[in-house]
Design brief:
Shape: globular
Order of helices and strands: EEEEHHEEHHEHEEHEHHHH
Number of helices: 10
Strand content: 15-25%
Strand order of the largest sheet: 1-2-3-7
Number of strands: 10
Length: about 280
C-alpha cells in the first residue's frame, strides 16, 4: 500500500489487524483486515415536482424522499435474516457507512460479497476491498469539505521542500478538522461488539467524531468540481469578491432569471455566495 502508516492496532496475540494511513488527499484512513466496513453511496435528494400547473400557481412541491431510509431497510433486513448479526450504522456526507460489530471477517470471504450485493455497496469500494484485501473507512474529512485546497504534495516526498509544504498544510488541515465530523452514528443495533473490535470501534468513533455531540458533517462546497467551476466563473464575472454585490436581493433575482438551471435550486452554490453577509456594524452586504 503506497500510503504512510500513522498508527497500528494489534490483537491480543500481538498481530496487526488494522492500520491508520494517510491517503493522497491527506485524510486519515482506517484499513482493517477484520472489521467489515461497508460504504453505501446514496443519490441526491430531489423534491417531487409539482408539475407545470403546480409551478404556475405556486403549489408547494412534496418533501423529498430520504434515500437513506431504503438503504437502512436493506441493512436491517440482512441483519434480521442472519441471526446474531449486528450493524453500527453511520451517516456520511455521500451516504451511509455500515460496520458489522458482532464478529471478525476476512475480505476474501464470499459472505462479504453477498453482503455488498444485499446492501448495494458502492462498486468502487467493493473493488478496492478485493484489490487491497482489507476494509477501508475514511476517518477525517476531505480537505475541500473543510474549505481547504488539496494537499500540496504526496508521500513519499521528493525533497525537503515538499515535505515542509505538506507539513504546513497538514497543520491547517488538522485545525480545520477539529470542528467537523466525518460521519454521525445513527444506530448501534443491539450494541454487541466483538472483543477484538472494541479498540477499532473506539478509534473510529473518536477520530470521526461520530458520537460527539454538537458536531456537524463536513460538507462545504467543492469549488473545484466540474459544475461548480462554471458557477465560480459566473460569480467572478458579476462582482468583485472584495466588495460583494451592490444589491443582494436584486442580484439573486437577476441570477434566477438569467440562470434558471442554477437559480431555481434553493441550495445552489451560486445563490449561496450571494446571501447577505452580516458585518460587524450590523449592516449586510
Amino acid at each position: 500500500m503506497r500510503e504512510p502508516v500513522l498508527r497500528e492496532v494489534r490483537n491480543a496475540a500481538g498481530e496487526v489487524t488494522s492500520v491508520v494511513t494517510r491517503n493522497s488527499y491527506g485524510c486519515q484512513v482506517l484499513n482493517s483486515a477484520v472489521a467489515l466496513f461497508v460504504d453505501v453511496d446514496l443519490p441526491d435528494q430531489k423534491p417531487k415536482s409539482g408539475g407545470l400547473f403546480g409551478s404556475l400557481f405556486g403549489r408547494r412541491t412534496a418533501e423529498p424522499e430520504d434515500p437513506a431510509k431504503a438503504a437502512i431497510a436493506k441493512a436491517t433486513a440482512w441483519a434480521h435474516s442472519h441471526p446474531g448479526w449486528n450493524w453500527r450504522i453511520y451517516r456520511t456526507k455521500a451516504g451511509l457507512r455500515l460496520l458489522a460489530t458482532h464478529g471478525l471477517f476476512d475480505p476474501a470471504d464470499p459472505v462479504c460479497e453477498r453482503v455488498f450485493a444485499a446492501v448495494d455497496a458502492d462498486p468502487l469500494y467493493r473493488k478496492l476491498c478485493q484489490t487491497q484485501k482489507c476494509f477501508r473507512a475514511r476517518l477525517t474529512p476531505k480537505p475541500w469539505r473543510c474549505k481547504l485546497p488539496h494537499a500540496p504534495a504526496r508521500w513519499p516526498f521528493e525533497n525537503a521542500a515538499e515535505e515542509h509544504a505538506f507539513g504546513n498544510w497538514d497543520a491547517k488541515y488538522h485545525t480545520a478538522c477539529v470542528i467537523k465530523a466525518t460521519c454521525l452514528l445513527l444506530d448501534k443495533g443491539s450494541g454487541e461488539v466483538h472483543e477484538e473490535l472494541r479498540e477499532i470501534v473506539k478509534l473510529h468513533d473518536q477520530t470521526t467524531r461520530a458520537t460527539s455531540p454538537g458536531f456537524e458533517l463536513a460538507s462545504s462546497i467543492n469549488w473545484n468540481s466540474r459544475p461548480n467551476r462554471m458557477t465560480r466563473s459566473i460569480v467572478a464575472n458579476h462582482f468583485s469578491t472584495e466588495t460583494g454585490p451592490p444589491d443582494v436581493a436584486h442580484y439573486r433575482w437577476a441570477i434566477r432569471r438569467r440562470y434558471p438551471w442554477l437559480g431555481n435550486r434553493s441550495r445552489s452554490p451560486l445563490l449561496a455566495v450571494c446571501r447577505p453577509t452580516r458585518m460587524a456594524d450590523g449592516s449586510t452586504r
